[in-house]
Specification:
This protein is of the alpha/beta class. The protein has six helices and 18 strands. It folds into two domains: about 200 residues, 3-Layer(aba) Sandwich (Rossmann fold), CATH 3.40.50; about 120 residues, Galactose-binding domain-like (Jelly Rolls, Sandwich). Helix content is about 25%, strand content about 30%. The longest helix is centred in the middle third of the chain and has 23 residues. The N terminus is likely disordered. The structure holds calcium ion (CA).
């Protein structure tokens, strides 16, 4: 039990998206713009492709896929994940299809990828591979060439596919660290050369420089909270919408009143705010934005109540809006969005108790997407 009053009856609004959002017509994309393939009004088939860090070596068992799906859902983007594998936590990961294969090397993907591509015909691929090539110097040294060949195979098999190629997570062991650093260093150049040759390939720094030692389950796998940070980078690359995350448990970001910090690895940054249970409980974020406008605030929240719960949210003392959190579990976190006007310069955004109970991990801030 994470809250003192969790047994109280809750409202019974179920099945709704967290935020009702009516998309405006999308502007016509530029002819030479492969970089932003996932638009609000365009159904898109996305294949997550890779190894165990696509499957998910974390406690939730979804790697970046759960939070990426949540971020896309919060915008109302019609994305269909595709692949021959189906795994991960139902609910928080609304589409469990993928093409992640635990323990696989680049060469193993090379041997199977053509069949997967012709079967599922994705519009977009998120490729993260190479961790299992880092075991020794020889295989690590061969990894860039194998990645180059794999990119050629993918783009030749599906010339219209938009291929996003990621860095791989940095590993703590000194030998692995050096190999990963060397491999990650080569990836932008490999991708740039393919793009210069006319292929629709883009590099995503999904992982490098992102994690602390406490962000790892083991030598090889970022934990669930850490994977959510990689998901932000994937989302931004896929949509062209940069997100800034503010951790609720960091005192520099937020003032907490009559609620408690909870340390747990499912939360981004290793912590979240629980016990937002009382009329005077609040989490008040303070941050700056460069320009005035309507911003999308995505709250990463944990709700294990078995029904939709909510917070009241207001910006700079203005009117309260409601952000609704579907119930997944206390250890599976969703991204629920609300759009609020912000000022140029400093802002405060205050979360207070709504219906039943939800814990607050972080907020992910951007301008409201226009495409
Ligand atoms: Ca957090």
């Amino acid at each position: 039990m994470r809250g003192l009053l969790r047994a109280l009856p809750a409202i019974a609004s179920v099945g709704a998206l967290a935020f009702t959002f009516t998309p405006a017509p999308a502007p016509a994309p530029a002819a030479d713009e492969p970089a932003v393939p996932i638009r609000r009004a365009t159904p898109t088939k996305l294949m997550p492709l890779g190894d165990s860090n696509t499957v998910g070596g974390d406690a939730a068992g979804a790697a970046y896929r759960a939070d990426l799906w949540q971020l896309l859902r919060a915008d109302g983007r019609p994305v269909d994940f595709v692949g021959s594998v189906n795994s991960g936590p139902a609910g928080v990961l609304g589409d469990r299809d993928h093409e992640g294969h635990g323990g696989w090397t680049i060469g193993q993907l090379q041997g199977s990828v053509t069949g997967w591509l012709t079967t599922y015909r994705p519009d977009v691929i998120t490729l993260q591979i190479g961790t299992n090539d880092m075991y020794d110097d020889a295989s690590a040294g061969a990894a860039p060439g194998k990645l180059s060949t794999l990119i050629d195979t993918i783009t030749t098999t599906l010339p219209d596919v938009k291929l996003f190629v990621a860095s791989i997570p940095q590993l703590a062991d000194p030998n692995h660290y050096a190999r990963v650093a060397a491999f990650n260093y080569t990836i932008p150049g490999i991708v740039a050369a393919k793009a210069a040759a006319g292929k629709q390939v883009r590099y995503v720094d999904a992982n490098s420089g992102l994690f602390q030692p406490y962000d790892f389950v083991d030598m090889w796998h970022p934990n669930y909270g850490a994977a959510s940070k990689a998901a932000i980078r994937w989302y931004s690359a896929l949509t062209g919408v940069p997100i800034t995350r503010y951790e609720a448990e960091q005192t520099a970001n937020a003032r907490v009143t009559n609620a408690k910090r909870v340390q747990i690895t499912s939360a981004s940054g290793g912590g979240k705010i629980g016990y937002i249970d009382y009329a005077d409980s609040s989490v008040t974020f303070t941050f700056q934005v460069g320009s005035a406008g309507t911003y999308r605030i995505r709250a990463r929240g944990a709700n294990g109540m078995g029904t939709v719960c909510s917070h009241q949210v207001s910006a700079n003392g203005g009117p309260k809006a409601t952000v609704k959190y579907p119930s997944y579990s206390w250890d599976l976190l969703g991204e629920s969005a609300v759009d609020l006007p912000l000022n140029a310069g400093p802002n405060t955004v205050k979360f207070t108790k709504g219906d039943c109970y939800t814990e607050l991990d972080a907020i992910d801030l951007s301008l409201v997407p226009t495409a």
